[in-house]
Amino acid sequence: TPDQRDRLAAVGERVSFAAGDRLFDQGQRDAPLVILESGAVEVRDCRPDGEVLVAPVRPGGFIGDTAMFTGQP
Predict the structure, then answer these.
(1) What are 50's strand-pairing partners?
(2) SS3 67
(3) Is the Cβ–Cβ distance between 12 and 36 less than 8 Å?
(4) 45 near 51, Cβ under 8 Å?
(5) What is the pTM of this model?
(6) Dihedral (CA of 18, 3, 29, 57) sign
(7) Distance from C-alpha of 26 to C-alpha of 11, rounded to nearest angstrom
(8) DSSP reduced 3-state for 9
């Protein structure tokens, strides 16, 4: 919700990215929680035969999982 995003913004950091920037790599242990305010992000699975689109993320969506808290890849 907008209220939840505002509360997270108060303790987080707002950053901007250019088209094509990689926010973090698959398996990265210190991957951040990203809440999208505008634009779009593609979540991709890197496989030996190439990258596969897993899901698009639109404004209001977020990227991250429990690995942010556990330190697991």
Answers:
(1) 47
(2) helix
(3) no
(4) yes
(5) 0.70
(6) negative
(7) 25
(8) helix
Structure tokens at 60: 């209001």
Instruction: Read off the amino acid at residue 67.
Output: A
What one-character DSSP code corresponds to residue 54?
A: E
Neighbour-count burial of 5, counting CB atoms closer than 10 A to its CB (0-12 exposed, 13-18 middle, 19+ buried): middle
- Give the total residue count for the chain: 73
How high is the mean pLDDT in each 10-residue block of the chain (73 residues)? Answer: 84 89 82 87 90 90 75 68
What is the token pair recorded at 32? 């951040």
Structure confidence at residue 66 (pLDDT): 67
H or E element at residue 6: helix 2-11
